[in-house]
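cron nightly-structures :: item 1 of 1
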Amino acid sequence: MMRMKSLAICLLAVMHAVTVSVRGQDASPASAGASQERPASMVPAIAAGDPASASVLGSGRWVKIAVTGEGIYRLDYSRLRDMGFTDPASAVLYGNNAGQLSFRNDGTAPDDLKKIAVRAEKGSDGIFNEGDYLLFYAEGTHRRVTDTGSGEYRFLRHHYSDTAWYFITSQAGGAPALKTETPPAAAPSYLSTATDVFMRHEKEDVNLIRSGREWYQQVTSGTQIGIGPGFTDLVTSERIRYTVRVAGRSDTETSFTLRQGSDPVRTMTVPPVTMTDLNGVYAETVTVTDSVLPSSATPAFSLTFSSGGNMAATGYIDYADFRARASLVWRDRLLFIHDSRSVGPAAVTRFTVQGSASLKVWDITDPYAPLEIQTTAASGNTLFYAATDSLRRFVAFTPAQVRQPLRSVQVTNQNLHALIPADMVIVTHPLFRPYADKLAALHLAEDGITSIIVTPEQVYNEFSGGIPDAAAIRNFVRMIRDRGRNGGPPLRYLLLFGDGSYENMTPPPGNSSFIPTWQSVNSTTGVLSFTSDDFYGLLDEGEGEADGFLDIGIGRLPAYDTTSAGIMVRKITSYILDTNRGSWRNILSLVADDEDSNLHMFDAEGLAEAASAAAPPLTIDKIYLDAYRQVTSVTGDSYPDASKAVDDRMAAGCLVMNYVGHGNETGLAHERVIRTDNINSWKNGTMLPLFITATCEFSRFDDVEISRAAGTIAARTSAGEMVLLNPDGGGIALMSTTRVVYSAPNYTLNRGIFDYAFRTAADGHSMRLGDIIRQAKVSSGIGMNKRNFLLLGDPALRLAWPVTGEVVTDSINGVHVSMQTDTLKALSLITVSGHLEDYEGNLMTGFNGTVEPTVFDKPGHVSTLANDGGSPMTFPVTGNVLFRGKTTVTGGRFSFSFIVPLDINYTYGNGSVKYYAWNGTTDLNGSFSGITVGGFSEAASDDTEGPLIRLFMNDTLFNDGGVTDTSPILLALLNDRSGINATGTGIGHDIIAWLDDDMSGAVVLNNLFRADIGVHSSGSLAYPVVVSEKGKHTVSLRAWDNLNNPTVATLNFVVETSGSFRLTDLLAFPNPVTEGTNFTAGHNRPGTEIGLTITVFSSDGRIVRVLRDKFLSDGYAFPDIHWDACDENGGRVARGLYLWRTEAVTSEGEKTSATGRFIIL
């Protein structure tokens, strides 16, 4: 169902017309991130008025009923029985409908549910039974309220629901009865025959910029639009006060004319806008307030838009408010009486309603305790008396105006108010509850994080009377935070598990609004309109909307179905469980846009300097677009080499991928350097970076496509979300933007992120993502730009930055680094020794594992090309890799040797060594910049042969000519006694690969090569290959040794683009069999868990032996399954011909089988 398009009318007086989960008990020690707060002088005290200690929903049977408007409702005895109440006489009504909750922490938040007085109509027998009913007063979600500042009435629209809810349970004694007010004894001091009446015309049809809380009614030029007000019996001598707000989008002046009947009342001129400025003022608004005498007791008003002859102009009506005085006349519909003139000290008012002598009147000033008013009949009218020393509200009605609730829903017992504090709150849509449970259990098991898991509906039931409202979630989170301050673990993180939508009125499944979004008010100016999940973490008294300091780390997992939820939890699980440690965790990739007088590259340089200072072991890979050749075509400018560099970096892995520059929700840079097809092609599932994108709208998760004609709302997935939702790679999380942002505050926040990302938390571990972005935002000041940044990801997840110690260089070729060491000359043999120490400087004698050293040549410089004009820029880059390998660490000490490649920069200067170490449980890193590189060694070498190269797909079980899918992993094993040249310095001496003899499409693979453990002469690389066409193909790879001797190797393979699960190339080897054999086969389901059953038959069909195994297949072949040539009883089988049948079943339930033969001698 789409957002409601009905006319919103508020008539205060119209004349005539869960199971809750808590994961874990004990909190882990607070991290540095959790303890880092704003200055103490800025921390307000916790507000008074603690929430209830328990909810009434915690026990008993509960049903909630829906209403869509203000009125008198009835609950029949029979309907209560249908709801499951065996004794309807004991039914009790509860509610807490406060309308749209305040977006600020101002002390007005409702808490839990309150009893509501009802009137029981029991019939002549005085017993509540069949045929009887309960009457009660209910409010809608929209209403008029009194502005505390001006004292004027204003319309308060609810931004999350048109439906209000009331709750029913059963209690001894039944509901509190409606009391009857005794008329005042004093004579009336005021005679009321009229009341204030209000009406609003507002159609919520279109959001002009798909952002913010303002929705408009689009109108065409020259069409007269009726706007009500639907008043009757107006006092024609009293002026109608009106407020009209309209908008226009045009590059010339436009206007609206307000008419009463056919008479013009007011013309409103709307200024022009700059139509090409899509991020500036999209439409100008004009608001007028004035008054006019009604032309009759039933006036009709209209608005007409004039485009001024501009065919491109568009007009919009926001709302029209009317306030008038009308006589108290009964017109066979609810009559609300609200007479502001009746109020006075010790005043008593007689109210006279003309037209009926049989009206019931209730005082509804207190909606939870209405009062029945005694009335008298006089001359066909209804009279009643009331004390009016304060403004009171009444409703007059007859049984004909009483309504029935729309529907009822069973409510499972819940008790959020009784929850104890926890480290993290997870608010999840029920659809994603199993995945939230998995994530909470993972955090508890791995790092002691305790979690509270709730659904939005559970929160609404106790904090907004069942009505959807983002402020209710904020208020619940605030309760948990405050309780944590008073005892128990302090609340540190909030995870919103579910996608959101800028259209918050339509619930799933007709919308992606699984977890509501807070939107700014403005919906006409791109740079002033935004959404921010920070709203949920501005928890101190007086804070709210977008004002205040963030108190907790907040992240969102934008799941829109169970598949996407599973993908994100699976990736987080893999990241936490460290399935692939490696030196990629030392790499920061900085991508900078061209344009804007090199601004983005200068910003990137500032970030590089900050990151290098904060974390010396980082290797910074700079991909500055203007340093690459720009290609111009009919589709626009592009940077294909830069785009490829990003793809290659993603394939090689990095800890952080940071972009600075222009972008939108479909990609990065005007030249589309990162597009959605790039993102979907990434296969870096074991090396997931944190993405930081200081650009516009890249992660606009709340965007949807609304079709008014079809009545549908379809989610739009932003490029940032695609990074997170890529099942095979992409990123682990994003610190990214949802709307238009400015470069200067972007840089400030980005630098703030770097300031905290590489610190060590108080518990000795790396920082959690929620703490990083929270502290960066707190330290960046009070500007609104930071609210456009959000964390798409798990806020309790630690960044995979090694912080548990340091890898230290001791000596080079036996000379301690404190002395003058040997120079790294071309073709010289170098041995480096070192040790590992903890963060207190102690040797880690218990560390036994591996260390990955990367040796770099001297830093270089690159000049940009000024592709878009302006001046070139020269920037420093990391030196070329001289050696990248792996060696063993024993007792905290290590050494490694390598031959310096022939291709180096022969001038002398300082290079560096950077390390990554891992022992199965702990990782750490380090760096050393005291090495000298340059010159040429005179040592002779007789090596004239190129490297030995062996090629496979996915794993070493692959056979030449085997079958793959369209995206296999090329695996290359290389060996040469002089070592492999991977420097990338010498012209034409790169490690490259190409498909189908087409060298024009060759890719450089230097960065992917890793030497084997403890040796410099052999190593491997893995590269994802994409082949779109099925059939036979070849892949070739060329590599050079350090003396620049080349070798080319070629592998044949067959691509199958689709098809059912099948087995190929069954093989038993050796065959014939003497002592035993190994079974294997090819298949077409790489990356899938497969269960395997191998049955060996004699030639007469008798089962000889059954073998079973289960494994996760990375490649296209089963691992060898050995059979010892014995039967089930361990006896040797006889000689002869045997059959073997392989049956395979994937984790998704796909099945296949195949049969082979072998001979036993």
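cron nightly-structures :: done
The radius of gyration is 37 Å.
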